[in-house]
């Protein structure tokens, strides 16, 4: 994953100057908070968060549908194995 260095902010700096975090999010769309010089947290705007949540829910639905399809397709085999 490529990280834009303009989005990086230390945990200490984020704690002392949260308005700087907000400005980064407003300007870049995302802020990456570093803890011990490693990316630890991501701050995004609410609209971006809603998009992420929507994508997660869609992925869960696809996985559930796929699992259901497999269960339906191999129902007889699963019943035989359960004996």
Largest sheet: 3 strands, mixed
CATH topology of the largest domain: YefM-like fold
Question: What is the ordering of alpha helices and beta strands?
Answer: EHHEEHH
**Whole-number mean pLDDT:** 93
Shape: elongated
Structural class: alpha+beta
Spatial strand arrangement across the major sheet: 1-2-3
Q: Report the total helices.
A: 4
Low-pLDDT runs: none
What is the rounded Rg?
A: 21 Å
The figure for the number of domains is 2
Number of strands: 3
Give the amount of beta strand, in percent. 15-25%
Give the CATH architecture of the largest domain: 3-Layer(aba) Sandwich
Helix share, percent:
55-70%
CATH class of the largest domain: Alpha Beta
Distance between the termini: 47 Å
Describe the structure in brief.
The protein has 83 residues and is α+β, with helices and mostly antiparallel strands. It has helices spanning 11-16, 18-28, 46-73, 75-82; strands at 8-10, 30-35, 38-44.
Task: Write out key terms for the chains shown.
alpha+beta; 2 domains; YefM-like fold; 83 residues; 3-stranded mixed β-sheet
What are the SSEs and their pairings?
Layout: E1 8-10, H1 11-16, H2 18-28, E2 30-35, E3 38-44, H3 46-73, H4 75-82
Parallel strand pairs: 1-2
Antiparallel strand pairs: 2-3
